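Subject: complex prediction, re-run

Hi both,

The earlier run crashed halfway through, so I resubmitted it with identical inputs.
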Amino acid sequence: MDAQERLSRLASYIDRMPSLPPTVTKVLEICNDRATSPVDLNRVISLDPVLMARVLKLINSAYYGLPNKVVSMVRAIIMLGINTVKNLALSTAVLDTLNRKTDLGVLKPVGFWRHSLAVGVTSRLLAKMHGEELSTIDEYFVAGLLHDIGKIPIDRVFAQEYVDVIEYSRERELPLYTAEREFLGFDHADCGRLIVDTWRLPTTILDTVTYHHRPAEYQGPNSTFVYTVHAANYFVNASRIGESGDDHPAALDASARAGLNIDEVKLSELAGVVDAEVQKAENFLKVV
Amino acid sequence: MIKLRFWGVRGSIPSPGAHTVNTGGNTSCIELRYGGADHLIIIDAGTGIRALGEFLVRSASETDTIHASLFLTHTHWDHIMGFPFFAPIYRKGTELDLYGPVTWEDESLKKVIGHQLNYQYFPVHSGELAATLRYHELRQERVELADGMVVHTTYLNHPVLCLGYRFEYHGTTVVTAFDTEPFRNLFPTDPSQAGFDPDIAAEGARAAHEENARLLSFYQNADLLIHDAQYTREEHQRTRMGWGHSSFEDAIENGLASSAARLLLFHHDPERRDDAFEEILSRCRSLAAKRNMQVDIATEGLVIELPDAQ
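This time it finished cleanly. Structure:
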């Protein structure tokens, strides 16, 4: 099977892609409460890359015809109301429990969820440190949360091959995306781009998902987003928070280093806050 | 010229009886005529549309075509429940264009409206209607009708997708803003509250402010703003927050902030008795007096004529 055929198989899987197991039960619990609190609703959606992407997909679809893309879940809840957002989340979660094949293939679900969340949290912290506008901070979080969304369909549709890819990257001490390219002909960033493009999510997310491993190649208006998520991903992998399947990630790229004026030392100072945020989320979701 | 006649001004449920006889008990329905050819737009199909339908059929000869564009603000029951009793749909030679929003569940407007004409609910099935019905699902957009009438739409704040309409004809503008409630920050803003997060509180405040500004810009400089005014502010704040309706005070504030020439308070609570309106209107007029905005209560049978500005 060549890369193109593999990508078409992934494309036909995208709409059936499940939410991550740690959040599904909590979504059902929160949404089945008659008096769902906006705080809980925002929190539970914001903790799951697939759920977050699905809700954003719908809000930004031609169906609502909104003139500006919405990336913030807080804003979505205020604009569309708790009921609409709750129904969206609920229908996604119910679908997942019906499909029930929610365990990822080779990627460990809780570990992968923890990695995604930690990159989201770190991206938000970095954006604040870098003095980005408050109104865009949430967007950095979402971009970080979704950066590895492309791994989910690969892990499901090509489960056996992905075992080999990860094994190969470990043996050769290669970054995972390099091994993916050699084995599959494309990497998880390409698959992520396919999802974000198909679901017409905002360009800040499209660009970060596509370029988070190749920030130096990016030439466009969202370079701060790309650098931030790249740096956050580097930090989370280096700190071994969660599991991304990437045991030998590439070094912090010079473009991100210069663009954000950061280095490994400054990044390492974030460890305590990121750990605490992930721990808080785990308590909320009762992750065991 | 734009000429409006109000056939239903009540919200939620029809409220007949001695206590509503002056204001009217039928739910939302407005007839809007414009242009020399007397083009007909109907806004909402609440129970008021029954009498409008009788009037239209009575006024037309058997061979006349009745052509109307029906703009539904949303599909809550009080805004569509008169539709099966709208006599022109049983008449050959009626052409009805129905416009309205749909919910995200992918149900078509035709299905939502047509469900009412189903043997479980009504003795006539939608397939048996003699009129020609065309359905147009609306989002936030601009629609052009005959003779230069332009209709803009925007999403209001209601528990289901609900559209505000801005009708512009030869420089004269009529805006409908029902059913809607001012957007507000739904997230905790007090550090002592559970779940408080300063970033979320700030984003929530910003989003609510921007959404309210978006609506004000949509209402801007209306010759007539027909605004939801279901509650008093006290009633709203006590038990009705989040129900998707405004207070009289909200309507006045929006009318003033958008420089409306004339404000009509609409979608009255079913519990609002005729004798309560005098005091409410007097209070509203005093709030509006400093800016010379004319304020009235919408009543059944009220006719308003607005001359062309151009």
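Chain B has a mean pLDDT of 94.

- K.
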